[in-house]
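Reproducibility note. Readers wishing to regenerate the assembly model reported in the main text can use the exact inputs given here. Chain order matters: entities are listed in the order in which they were concatenated for prediction.
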Amino acid sequence: MIPKVSVYLAVSADYYIAREDHSLDWLEHDPKGQDYGYNRFAKSVDLIVMGRKTFEKVLGFETWPYEGRTVIVLSRSLTKSDLAPVIARRVELLNMEPAEVLCYAEALGCTHIYLDGGITIQGFLAQGLVNEMILTVFPLLLGKGIPLFGPMDKEVALEVLDLKGYDSGLYQVHYRVK
Amino acid sequence: MIPKVSVYLAVSADYYIAREDHSLDWLEHDPKGQDYGYNRFAKSVDLIVMGRKTFEKVLGFETWPYEGRTVIVLSRSLTKSDLAPVIARRVELLNMEPAEVLCYAEALGCTHIYLDGGITIQGFLAQGLVNEMILTVFPLLLGKGIPLFGPMDKEVALEVLDLKGYDSGLYQVHYRVK
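Running the prediction on these inputs yields the following structure tokens for the assembly.
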């Protein structure tokens, strides 16, 4: 069975996923510990697929957030020898197109892919290979940054499965890609 | 009193307000006649301010939608002599910066401005001169078009005043600009 492909992202109100320098400092944690459904979502995922830039960002986090999970990093240039051994053990580096990634994931027996990174998401969307997008929107116009959506040659119809406002001032829209 | 400045727009899910050729054919009317609060909003408005490109788009509509209302068209180049007399009577052409438009509107005794057009909205937002944005989101990624938001050198904090889903599949987010 072809794995389900999900996007779960925090975005600014003008749909940037990070500042130009990839920083996420504008994403404040909810003092009430609200996780916006992330943990439930993350538990359902058995494969994480991200682009190289997102990977490099995650490497700067205090702890590796995907312990015990299969992580694929898509890159045209990066090889294992570029990585410290402790990092290299945590990920698979693949130079693949979106459809090839899905075949590969299916062969691994994966059922639910968590897709991360602007360029990676845009590539899968353009190929019609994203099944759902859960966007948690921060009420802030960043004005510039790394955009969630990029130019596409075709339209993609969506369906709003769920729409939630939070006391923290954020809201979340859950799209199914038709 | 400085007039309140509102944006009321239909946008695609990737925040385009029109196709690259300015067409709006992707905006389907709701078969149930749902107006998404437009009429109530429009009644509260006593001045419409739009950019030249939006004006040219509106000229192509079957009927002039702002009959009986003051309409300001912002343009650096257009003059009344460029317009047919029947059109010229309907609008004021001004070559003004956002803050000047507000002073002018205040002098006219206007209290509530309906701001339209991507570049116009971006200009007012960048100057901190928009008070609210009501965005009705169509569940469709257009992939390209005229963007609602443009690059800005500063951030703009928003507050979600209201969030509504509609049976038609659209949703609406009402932001107050802080």
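We highlight two features of this model. Residues 4-151 of chain A form a domain with the Dihydrofolate Reductase, subunit A fold (CATH 3.40.430.10). Chain A touches chain B through 30 residues (CB under 8 Å).
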